[in-house]
């Protein structure tokens, strides 16, 4: 029974060794010519101003979590659509379609609630 997991173990071992080898080879043979200009902080073509650790409003985290939540939930549409197109339409039919409508309804209720609460507004 454990022999069934051997391909996964081989894949994990090989990918880990490949990643470690790439890092080690880059460190050993890669160019290292640090200069004061190269060691300066630099971001997006603009020299940074102010402290590196600034307070970020909680609203930023709320918007980020809501984006991830709705983004992940919409990812479920593609596999359902492909499966519905090929298999489910023949066997489950309207039941599977109704279940997806319930899922979309729950998503819409959550989205409208977040919108009404002002969670999606960026100030």
Summarize this structure as a short list of keywords or feature phrases.
Methane Monooxygenase Hydroxylase, Chain G, domain 1; flat; mainly alpha; 123 residues
Overview of the structural elements:
The protein is mainly α. The chain has a single domain, classed as Methane Monooxygenase Hydroxylase, Chain G, domain 1, CATH 1.20.58. 65% of the residues lie in helices and 0% in strands. It is built from 4 helices and no strands. Helix 3 packs antiparallel against helix 4. The longest helix is centred in the first third of the chain and has 24 residues. It is flat, with a radius of gyration of 25 Å. The N and C termini lie far apart (57 Å). The relative contact order is 0.06. The model has no long low-confidence stretch (mean pLDDT 82).
List the helices and strands and how they pair.
Blueprint: H1 6-29, H2 58-75, H3 77-91, H4 94-116
Summarize the structure.
By secondary structure, the chain is mainly α.
